[in-house]
Each structure stands twice: as structure tokens, then as C-alpha cells.
Design a protein that fits this description.
Helices cover about 40% and strands about 15% of the residues. The chain is of the alpha/beta class. Mean pLDDT is about 85; it is low at about 1-15, about 70-75 and about 345-350. It has 13 helices and eleven strands. It has a six-stranded parallel β-sheet, with helices on both faces. Strands 6-7-8 form a three-stranded parallel β-sheet.
Length: about 350
């Protein structure tokens, strides 16, 4: 773009071959959070002194222009928090919403939840939601990363259970947790023929758990007993997986992408004549309430899903948040892997 006198009007500091700088670029340049940059652009009195001057200098140098949508949201509060999820069913998403709601209630903010599953206009719907909320939580992998970059210019977008280069993220290390779980099956129980249950390309969470599963196998010099049983993440899918593995032959252990899949297997395999864990060990992931009362009780990974939602909500509503907030997981050992009832949890039951 050039002015009428032939001179370029492009800001001097614009980087990346002329790409428009984002609020994330400014935050990285100055070494502060996205929320701090947003507050400076909105003349928030909470940011003063040297920090405010350094942010303003970087804005001028890089040629950053806050989006009109972000300014509108700043000055016309809606007292509403938006949550974007791939779907609304199941205990996992319910726990995420519960955590976010705990913060929303505390701050007198309403929640507006959008499920993108089966929506051909998902991106447009997310944009409409963003335009009528004060902050937005987006589940990892729900919308394209370039859309996260666009929304992040508002300075109030947080990715939960996933990562983005353009917005703060609140997550757990599913890859490391799944590797620890798989190593337990290999090292404690001596299993050498293990199979993953879940569609590795279905979500970032499942993909990372599958990577962790393969990490543990590779570390032990093992290969997968068979290709993953590629099913969705609900109980019915677990029942379908049970019938498939009954036809194809059982491995020594089935490592499920989540607890719902594992519960479906636990409920179906005994009716097909298979003992758990005598014939096949089964593990889950998430440590939902059903895991504790299943028969046999389910060995799984506990992750603080409610806290994930709460941390993301606080960040979306203006609290300072690191670029990557990693919450801890915990291996919970029960009977479905072959441990005795007296073994308990590897690191203490979740309620302890």
C-alpha cells in the first residue's frame, strides 16, 4: 500500500514479510502477557509506569492496530463468557463447563456455550459468539488455528485442552500421562501385546494419548499388537470396539483414549465370554466418576477437568495467564489392569 506521494505507508516495524502483527507478537516482544497488552491498548489503569511505556513503544514500532471488535468488547461489556466445544454431550465436557461456571458465578457473568459438531457454519458461529461475549474459551482443535489468531486480537481468548501459537492455553500433558499408564502395563504386569482404542486423528487429546502409548512401546522395544480400534469417545463406541476385538482376537491389554470407551468395553466383553483382567487388561483416561464404581474398577489417569475449565474461564475474563498453563495428572491404579484391590492408586486416590 502506498500514499499519493508514492511513499509506503507500511509501519516500519511490521515483521514476518509484511504480515499484520498480532497482540501475541507485542506480548512476546515485550515479555508480558496478552492480557497486559490488551489492557494497555484499552488504557486500563491497572498497567502503569515502565511496563505501559514498553508496550506502547512495541505497538508503535511493530505497527500493531487493535481490532475494532476487541475495542468494542472492551468498552461495551456483555457480562457473558463464551465457551466453544466440539460437542456438548458426555461427562468430560460437562466437567469443563462446570469449572468455567464456578468462575462465572463468582464474577456475576453468564455463560453461552456453542457446540460446533455438525455445524457447517462453525467458524461463522464462533465469530458471532465472540461478538457478544466478554471472553472466549475454545477447546483445542475445535476451530482452525488461523481463526484463533483472528479472535486472539481481542486479547480475551483462551484455548483449553489444546494449544495454539496465538492464544494462551490451559492443558494437561496427555502424552506423558498416557506413556506412564502404558509403562505400568508393560513393566508391572509384563504385557507385550497392547492395542490402542480410539481414533488418533479425532481430536488433539486422543492424538497425544496415542503418541504417549507409542512412546512407551518404543521405549520397551515393543510394537503395537494391531492397528488402533478407531472409534469415537462414547460408551456405545466402546461396546462396538469390544465386538470387533472379540472377532479379531484379544491382545493382552487395551489402552483406551478415555473412560467412556473403557466403560463400554468393561460392560460388553464379559458377555462375550472374556474375563477382565484375566483375559485382557483395560485402562481409561480422565478418571470420571464411573471409573470408581465400574466392575472391575477402572485403572485410568486422573486429570483435573473442572480446574481446566476454571483456569481457562479466569483467563478469558481478564486474569493474567501464562502462554502455557500445564496442570498435573495422576495415574490411578485399580483392578481393571490386573492390580489387586489392596494396591490402590499409584499416587493416592483422587479424593485424597
Amino acid at each position: 500500500m502506498t500514499a499519493s506521494d508514492g511513499h509506503s505507508t507500511r509501519p516500519r516495524g511490521r515483521a514476518h514479510g509484511g504480515a499484520r502483527p498480532t497482540i501475541r507478537d507485542i506480548a512476546r516482544e515485550v515479555g508480558v502477557s496478552v492480557a497486559t497488552v490488551s489492557r494497555v491498548t484499552h488504557d486500563d489503569p491497572r498497567v502503569t509506569g515502565e511496563t505501559k511505556e514498553r508496550v506502547r513503544e512495541a505497538i508503535d514500532r511493530l505497527g500493531y492496530t487493535p481490532s475494532s471488535l476487541g475495542r468494542a468488547l472492551s468498552y461495551q461489556r456483555t457480562n457473558t463468557l463464551g465457551i466453544v466445544l466440539p460437542g456438548l454431550g458426555g461427562p468430560y465436557f460437562a466437567a469443563l463447563i462446570e469449572g468455567a461456571e464456578s468462575i462465572a458465578v463468582e464474577r456475576g457473568v453468564a455463560i453461552n456455550v456453542l457446540g460446533t459438531h455438525l455445524r457447517p457454519d462453525a467458524v461463522a458461529s464462533v465469530r458471532q459468539l465472540a461478538a457478544r461475549t466478554d471472553g472466549l474459551i475454545v477447546a483445542g482443535g475445535t476451530v482452525p488455528d488461523e481463526e484463533i489468531a483472528r479472535l486472539a486480537q481481542m486479547g480475551r481468548v483462551v484455548v483449553v485442552a489444546g494449544e495454539s501459537a496465538e492464544a494462551p492455553a490451559v492443558l494437561t500433558d496427555g502424552r506423558a500421562a498416557a506413556s506412564e499408564l502404558t509403562r505400568h502395563l508393560i513393566e508391572v504386569h509384563g504385557h507385550t501385546r497392547l492395542q490402542f482404542v480410539g481414533e488418533p486423528t479425532g481430536s488433539p487429546d486422543t492424538s497425544l494419548r496415542y503418541d504417549g502409548f507409542r512412546d512407551a512401546l518404543a521405549g520397551a522395544g515393543l510394537v503395537e499388537a494391531d492397528e488402533p480400534l478407531r472409534y469415537g469417545l462414547d460408551v456405545r463406541s466402546g461396546a462396538l470396539a469390544a465386538r470387533q476385538v472379540d472377532e479379531n482376537g484379544l491382545p493382552e491389554a487395551l489402552v483406551c483414549a478415555n473412560d467412556e470407551l473403557a466403560i463400554g468395553l468393561l460392560a460388553t466383553l464379559p458377555g462375550l465370554g472374556h474375563r477382565i483382567p484375566g483375559d485382557v487388561a483395560i485402562t481409561g483416561f480422565d478418571d470420571q466418576s464411573l471409573a470408581e464404581i465400574a466392575s472391575p474398577r477402572l485403572t485410568t489417569v486422573h486429570q483435573p477437568v473442572t480446574e481446566l475449565g476454571a483456569r481457562a474461564a479466569a483467563g478469558a475474563l481478564g486474569d493474567d495467564l501464562d502462554d502455557r498453563t500445564l496442570l498435573p495428572t495422576r495415574l490411578v491404579v485399580r483392578e481393571s489392569c490386573g492390580c489387586s484391590t489392596s494396591t490402590g492408586s499409584a499416587t493416592g486416590d483422587p479424593q485424597d
